[in-house]
# Entry
Amino acid sequence: MKLRRRESRRARIEIVPMIDVVFFLLVFFMMASLSMAVYAGLPVNLPQAATGQVAASETASVTIDREGHAYLNREPIAMSDLDQRVRGLLQSNPAIAMVINADAEAAHRHVVAVLDALRLAGVSRMAIAVTPTSEAR
# Structure
């Protein structure tokens, strides 16, 4: 009896599992980078609004606490110095957006003073930070 010799199979690399692994790594690093986002404001109780949106990536933060003290990117600042410091930020990045984080209990006059100082400094892109209400979610 004559036995036939089997042809040896050529080794090949399966690419589908490798694509899956690369995809999962991509998703993992995207999620990890999102969790490392830098928050430049101080923790305050933000008011709620149904039209709240996510802030732009190139932003600077002006925080107003309950007592009316102002902070520029977590550093205390006098209201008289705010426009000069913001002008310096605008010179380094003209497309910067200013986010105003005002405590819900802060007096309205403090928020208006910050808005006025930002406008005098030449800021064209600004937003007021809020917490979305439960209906908007």
